[in-house]
């Protein structure tokens, strides 16, 4: 569906859309051959300690509702078509975050007969989060980096890579003091004691 | 010891079909049987309620050997009995155990697609793990498999 | 038409997380009449890959077969290779392997309880178990330096030691978890709403369980006394045994109870090991090349018996590595069990594989204004892209 608007209205509408998207990006997760390590860490970001939902990030079931595709694992021969299809089903504009070493390059499985390589062999990737598996903080930071990029507006920008030195931004968002470590852990220790 | 009596009993049960019996390591007996005797041998173990089928391993000893092997591992406590079936590489075929062990289907499908050993009489011959566009006649776990055979 | 079958395809991508698998259920109204599965979306060719890598590299690879139970894969592989080489890991290394294995079981069972509760729509329990699971993740990270894929094992021993400080941290963590686990046991065995979804659902009799060769907690929930830790003790399970946890009912409730009760055994055995941790080296020397031989190595993974067959050929890499994971025999039982149940119960029966309705892999027949046409996958895809543009 395309609506013809005059330029100023179109600009206002785009601004509104970007605002909404940044405030609450909906994500979908697809495992194209992962060992589950990254998948459980993504799941962990949704659960009480990390709880990304309070930041407006919601994991969605259907690709039709998603802004962000979070991919884990190397791409296997059999999963390739499904991955492309899910990507195609997402509405524009869409963004891809590759999580874990395997999704970046094939990782430990490089050279195995059923592996095509990293996710970027099949679909364009916006953010790369390395690690085997990356910590939940790193995954959250990947999303934060993507949002920062969206604020910059041009989605076809160069890809960004998670940088452990700048993990502070995500840590603060996750309610942690970057120096003292996870705030929840301290509370829990007190609770246990 | 309990494991030893278990193994002894299995060896007795399998004696009618055994071509060769070795003990590769403590707690294990390796019995070679002819492909035609496989079902009868497995039935003997199952009828005596001797453990359960834990896995089927395919083995490719290399092209010069001219054979492929299928290893049926049965476990009872700590004891493991392996039925070793050798089939010619030119026409590899083993009978299905589906009548004796109903849950064998997945293992047999895996054996078929990975080694190209035909399992005669198994109900489902669809691929289990390999992709739909995998070329016919290419078996990844054989020693002569090369990545180039897959094409682009 | 009575003869017409209605097929519901599920997966490989489904709204809940976990591995992709494709299921097809034939249904008559709400009742499932037949089920089949297509695996292989995450088939990576690891068995072949392990043949082309040396033993040290292969250990790294098999550890990544599964991110939830990576430690047991590495343990099974190391035990097998050590046996081939005629080397035994020092007692302290074995104790540490066993502690990490039991901590992993705790993390895996808590994860499972959460995911299975989520399938039943009981998200509160999901969030609570996952919150508490972070405690054990902290402990694992404290010992090994990583939350997942710990890499505690090396061929011949372990990489990391457990000092007095860590031992104390583990004790404190276990005390907290034990108290929480008591609460979970109460919830899964007394919450009326939850029991409506679990009691009497997916019943597998002992005969069926034995016939289908199921393993692990699934078998033990049906009264089959099958646990590799007890049947064929490895590591220090002979000196510090776990007790068999068994339930007779064979339904979903029993599977919840078995797993939750197993947690208590894990807590107990870890405490026992921590107080009796043997002194000594962490690794034994292992030769690079290993003489030709075959071995079988079995361990009890959180999901059941894990089977490794390793053949060496005198070089520094394996001739053949065969892995049989516990899910394969259990999967066959799941398909058989879902027949005759309400479709709504299927996710609970599959629990942990959690499927949902989303994508259909094949060509579709579209009826429009009376004329029928067959669309290829490519056309259907293009139509979808255009429609939503």
Describe this structure in words.
The complex is a heterotrimer of chains A (193), B (152) and C (389). Chain A has 193 residues and is α/β, with parallel strands linked by helices. Chain A has a single domain, classed as Rossmann fold. Chain A has helices at residues 7-23, 37-46, 80-89, 101-105, 136-151, 168-173, 183-192; strands at 26-31, 58-59, 68-72, 75-76, 95-99, 115-117, 127-129, 160-161. In chain A, strands 2-1-3-5-7-8 form a six-stranded parallel sheet. Chain A has a two-stranded antiparallel ribbon with strand order 4-6. In chain A, helix 2 packs across helix 5 (136-151). Chain A is globular, with a radius of gyration of 18 Å. Chain B has a single domain (2-147), classed as NADH:ubiquinone oxidoreductase Nqo5 subunit (Beta Polymerase, domain 2). Chain B is an alpha/beta fold. Helix content of chain B is 22%, strand content 28%. In chain B, the strands form two sheets. In chain B, strands 1-2-5-4-3 form a five-stranded mixed sheet. Chain B has a two-stranded parallel ribbon with strand order 6-7. By secondary structure, chain C is of the alpha+beta class. Chain C folds into three domains: 1-43 and 326-358, Enolase-like, domain 1 (2-Layer Sandwich), CATH 3.30.390; 55-311, Cytochrome-c3 Hydrogenase, chain B (Orthogonal Bundle), CATH 1.10.645; 365-389. Chain C has 14 helices and ten strands. Chain C has helices at residues 46-52, 55-62, 70-85, 91-119, 123-144, 164-190, 192-198, 206-212, 216-220, 228-231, 252-275, 327-338, 346-350, 377-388; strands spanning 6-10, 22-28, 31-38, 153-154, 157-158, 293-301, 304-312, 318-324, 364-368, 371-375. In chain C, helix 5 (123-144) runs antiparallel to helix 6. The model of chain C is unreliable at 352-375 (pLDDT under 50). Chains in contact: A-B, A-C, B-C. Chains A and C meet through strand 1, helix 2, helix 3 and helix 7 of A and helix 1, helix 5, helix 6 and helix 14 of C.
